[in-house]
Amino acid sequence: MPYITRRKVRFQHCDPAAIVFYPRYFEMINSVVEDFFAEVVEVDFRAMHVERHVGVPTVSLETRFHAPSRLGDELEFNLVPTAVGSTSLTLSIHARCEDETRLSCRLTLVFVDMDSGRPIPWPDAMRQRLVTELS
Amino acid sequence: MPYITRRKVRFQHCDPAAIVFYPRYFEMINSVVEDFFAEVVEVDFRAMHVERHVGVPTVSLETRFHAPSRLGDELEFNLVPTAVGSTSLTLSIHARCEDETRLSCRLTLVFVDMDSGRPIPWPDAMRQRLVTELS
Amino acid sequence: MPYITRRKVRFQHCDPAAIVFYPRYFEMINSVVEDFFAEVVEVDFRAMHVERHVGVPTVSLETRFHAPSRLGDELEFNLVPTAVGSTSLTLSIHARCEDETRLSCRLTLVFVDMDSGRPIPWPDAMRQRLVTELS
Amino acid sequence: MPYITRRKVRFQHCDPAAIVFYPRYFEMINSVVEDFFAEVVEVDFRAMHVERHVGVPTVSLETRFHAPSRLGDELEFNLVPTAVGSTSLTLSIHARCEDETRLSCRLTLVFVDMDSGRPIPWPDAMRQRLVTELS
């Protein structure tokens, strides 16, 4: 079952054409990944970054922007894990507004020890939760 | 011959791990595309957006982040067109710091009439310049 | 009675010290003003910018940052109009986390015809609502 | 003598009215302060944040936006220290495009030990350089 959350297209997201400037979509996507970790994986970014000195940097992205989003649009983001590696995670993310798909994204991130900068294996509890969510 | 330009990693680009937050890379990439249009295609974004009501929205992106970039790094961006369609343009973009590749990106954008939101053919002068730059 | 809304401090807001980078506070403040117009003044930014070609650009700001905000903090924003001019509006905005004030801001914006760039008088309905909210 | 540097108004800075969205001005201002520290004070943000665990968070701001800036404008930023306290620094910053002043800002920042979060006195070498620049 996908993780679902909503974001409103705000003034700060829009370019001179009054549509979302694509780097702002990635701020939204990052916030969706942030909420997924907090709510589903049950380890939030504060716990990761500040307390444990670990992080989940993105290592690759494939994104298609199917149709523009406009100021005031309500976007529904839909996130589902598609692969869990020993140190990595691949997510499939879609955003739509009503019946129209706006973007689809495949994103791979890696679990990293921020002190060494090296990938480390997912802790069992996190891995368990990720595997449960696999589509 | 690729179009080359440099960007410094600033405080505003960095996350709590003191490395570039990836949505900020796309702001840099967009500014590199902006300079490529102004300097090589010889039609700048002001002329496009404000005077002619046309634009070049990004429709797809594939990006790999090979290694993190840190506060103060000087990045060299290297951009080369790899395909020119009737209304589209595919660019290959790399960034490196000294000998290390930091990101590689393939980006497709479309020439669009901003009033109708529809793709339109590249004007001859723009198309000519783009074709000349093809790798 | 102040208008109250909440914002979570996200990864995208934080700098290498893991505290809010102050330009991101202004993105939050703008989004609070945006919600105030949508919910209290009952004219949202889409209606203003896209349909009516009017806007409310900020012309002056005084801000004090009393204490830093950290990744994961829940901020409560509190907004109250303190003066309504014929074409202007002054807002007092505070943000706090639990019992600690994080920022206080006095912001003046102007109602502007975006085609001419000139200030124009508040329409009666908007003015009425603003005056009702005056502290 | 003021410290002078230039910034181009880019697509990423502009809002649906094709003028600079004011939080983006503060990203520019922060980058101007960053260059002033690197070039005039001769301690860059990487040295401060990464090596010495010190920083210069902004504690107060007064800003007036005199006229809008548009996509493609070349802004000249002009920065001059107006007061150096034992742990603080007040800067006067102006931006103009040709003969038109776009913004004026008075900004106070504090030299802080990032580990304790407490203000600490300017090291002599930094203080010396700041005092020399006082208007």
Automatic annotation (TrEMBL), chains A, B, C, D:
Signal peptide: none annotated. Keywords: Hydrolase. InterPro entries: 4-hydroxybenzoyl-CoA_TE, HotDog_dom_sf. Belongs to the 4-hydroxybenzoyl-CoA thioesterase family. This is 4-hydroxybenzoyl-CoA thioesterase. It comes from Litchfieldella qijiaojingensis. The lineage of its organism: Bacteria, Pseudomonadati, Pseudomonadota, Gammaproteobacteria, Oceanospirillales.
